[in-house]
């Protein structure tokens, strides 16, 4: 009997502990009950209010810029596009931002001159890219506020160094690939300039441009070789997982193919190709290249095409002649019976 009573007491211990803990928690929180009642609404308000303010600021700017048409020339001779499509902006990933989040030198007052204070790090960055963006380099540098890590990758890439170190204006930066900041949509959206379906044409604006190819001595056959490759043909057929430019070359931290850090340099391609082709070895990786094919594979391909066309032509001709022969014999046999 004693053992039974002891077991029951032990089993009741967790219940007593939970019950006492709960009662203690209620006693502690009771004085703050009224305060706790207001905490959730205040948190929601703290999250929603900045968005509402940003939306109102954007609406103030769009009231004019959505109806403006054409471009104006600045004192420095640069043309500025005045119109911003309000519907496309509201559908973009930046719709929750206020215009002054990027155009930091401006204020909410459209009649005041641009002279608002700008953080020193943004000013320093804007000075490095001012030659590429002479109209509002601060707005171009403001991308780093939200995308700081990505922006640093771009600056250290072959594209970024071409702008910051060589001071070239045709180097690729954010807007060259993603398009207007007012209309940027998620990468997975087919309308995105860097989506799987559009990425080839976006990169092709530079890598298919003869002047840029000659200036920087780039590979000449990049677009054509991709489109003719197995990857390019699968993309054309609508395959959703086929590799595109960024799959092999990376997206923001792109290096020269001669840079040992590049994923397409030397044996680095073993790992790069291995992401899709498990077990890719030294004999596999030379098969994937943008270089023009030599005369042997070129004419071999043409010969195989002619061979296939010839075989199908022969088969179709043979079938038609056979059908004609059967029809002719049937007609003659019918005439002989009559």
Description:
This protein is mostly helical and 338 residues long. It has a domain at 147-293. The protein has 17 helices and two strands. A two-stranded antiparallel sheet has the order 1-2. Strand 1 and strand 2 form a beta hairpin. Helix 8 packs across helix 9 (158-164) and helix 13 packs across helix 14. It starts with a helix and ends with a helix. Mean pLDDT is 83; it is low at 1-19, 32-39 and 42-53.
Helices and strands in order, then pairings?
Layout (H helix, E strand, L loop, with lengths): L1 H28 L3 H33 L5 E3 L5 E3 L4 H5 L8 H4 L17 H9 L8 H5 L1 H4 L1 H9 L1 H7 L9 H5 L20 H9 L2 H7 L5 H7 L1 H7 L8 H5 L18 H7 L20 H43 L1
Antiparallel strand pairs: 1-2
Low-confidence stretches: 1-19, 32-39, 42-53
Order of helices and strands: HHEEHHHHHHHHHHHHHHH
**What percent of residues are in strands?**
under 5%
Radius of gyration: 34 Å
Largest sheet: 2 strands, antiparallel
In round numbers, the mean pLDDT is 83
Principal-axis shape? elongated
Helix content class: 55-70%
For the largest sheet, list the strands in their spatial order.
Answer: 1-2
Distance between the termini: 119 Å
Structural class per helix/strand content? mainly alpha
**What's the total number of strands?**
2
Q: In DSSP terms, counting alpha (H) and pi (I) runs of 4 or more, how many helices? A: 17
What's this, in brief?
With 338 residues, the protein is mostly helical.
Provide keyphrases for this structure.
single chain; 338 residues; mainly alpha; two-stranded antiparallel sheet; 17 helices; disordered N terminus
């Amino acid at each position: 009997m004693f053992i039974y009573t002891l077991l029951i007491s032990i089993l009741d211990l967790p219940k007593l502990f939970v019950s006492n803990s709960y009662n203690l928690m209620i006693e502690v929180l009771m004085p703050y009950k009224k305060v706790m009642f207001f905490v959730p609404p205040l948190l929601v308000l703290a999250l929603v209010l900045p968005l509402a303010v940003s939306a109102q600021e954007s609406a103030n700017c769009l009231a004019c810029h959505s109806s403006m048409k054409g471009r104006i020339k600045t004192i420095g001779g640069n043309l500025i596009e005045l119109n911003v499509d309000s519907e496309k902006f509201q559908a973009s990933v930046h719709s929750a931002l206020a215009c002054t989040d990027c155009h930091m030198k401006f204020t909410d007052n459209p009649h005041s001159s641009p002279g608002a204070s700008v953080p020193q790090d943004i000013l320093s960055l804007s000075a490095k890219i001012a030659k590429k963006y002479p109209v509002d380099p601060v707005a171009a540098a403001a991308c780093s506020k939200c995308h700081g890590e990505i922006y640093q990758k771009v600056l250290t890439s072959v594209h970024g160094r071409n702008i910051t170190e060589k001071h070239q204006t045709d180097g690729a930066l954010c807007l060259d690939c993603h398009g207007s900041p007012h209309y940027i949509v998620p990468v997975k959206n087919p309308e995105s300039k860097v989506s799987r379906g559009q990425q080839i044409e976006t990169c092709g604006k530079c890598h298919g441009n003869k002047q840029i190819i000659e200036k920087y001595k780039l590979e000449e056959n990049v677009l054509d070789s991709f489109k003719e490759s197995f990857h390019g043909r699968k993309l054309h057929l609508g395959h959703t997982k086929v590799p595109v430019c960024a799959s092999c070359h990376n997206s923001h931290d792109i290096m020269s193919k001669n840079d040992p850090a590049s994923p397409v340099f030397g044996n680095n391609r073993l790992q790069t190709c291995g992401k899709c082709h498990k077990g890719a070895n030294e004999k596999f990786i030379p098969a994937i290249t943008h270089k023009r094919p030599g005369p042997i594979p070129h004419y071999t391909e043409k010969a195989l095409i002619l061979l296939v066309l010839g075989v199908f032509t022969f088969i179709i001709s043979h079938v038609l002649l056979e059908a004609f022969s059967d029809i002719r014999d049937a007609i003659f046999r019918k005439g002989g019976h009559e």
